[in-house]
Amino acid sequence: MLRATVMGSVWATRRLEALPSGALLEVRTDDGATLIAFDVLGSGAGERVLVATGSVASGYFGPDHPPLDALIIGSLDEPANEEKEQR
């Protein structure tokens, strides 16, 4: 699992029917990597989140396994690293 900050939404004019209801969000992990993660929680820009990756992400949805590689599974109650460093 990865800690990350939501950077914003990713908009697509078309998407696979296999994807459940949710949003595609751009997140930046604490180590600086950028991912597109699927979100069913309603996370917003600037929010700190916990991201599961790989087969665990798609396995959450049961035997259908939609084509997902990263899934936001929690909202963290902590400030971003930049805010911690400024204190």
Layout of strands and helices, then pairs:
Layout: E1 2-9, E2 23-29, E3 34-39, E4 48-53, H1 55-59, E5 70-75, H2 81-86
Parallel strand pairs: 3-5
Antiparallel strand pairs: 1-2, 1-4, 2-3, 4-5
Structural class call reads mainly beta
CATH class: Mainly Beta
Rg for CA atoms? 13 Å
Cα-to-Cα separation, first versus last residue: 26 Å
- CATH topology descriptor: OB fold (Dihydrolipoamide Acetyltransferase, E2P)
Pattern of helices and strands: EEEEHEH
Average of the residue pLDDT scores: 87
Helix content: 10-25%
The number of strands is 5
The CATH H-level homologous superfamily = EutN/Ccml
Largest sheet, in brief, is:
5 strands, mixed, barrel
Strand content: 35-45%
Any guess at the CATH architecture?
Beta Barrel
Secondary structure tally, helices: 2
Task: Summarize the structure in words.
It contains two helices and five strands, in the order ββββαβα. It has helices spanning 55-59, 81-86, and strands spanning 2-9, 23-29, 34-39, 48-53, 70-75. The protein has a single domain (2-14, 21-77), classed as EutN/Ccml (OB fold (Dihydrolipoamide Acetyltransferase, E2P), Beta Barrel), CATH 2.40.50.220. The protein has a five-stranded mixed barrel with strand order 1-2-3-5-4.
Q: Can you describe this structure in just a few lines?
A:
The chain has 87 residues and is mainly beta. It has helices at 55-59, 81-86, and strands at residues 2-9, 23-29, 34-39, 48-53, 70-75. Strand 2 (23-29) and strand 3 form a beta hairpin.
Summary keywords:
mainly beta; OB fold (Dihydrolipoamide Acetyltransferase, E2P); 2 helices; globular
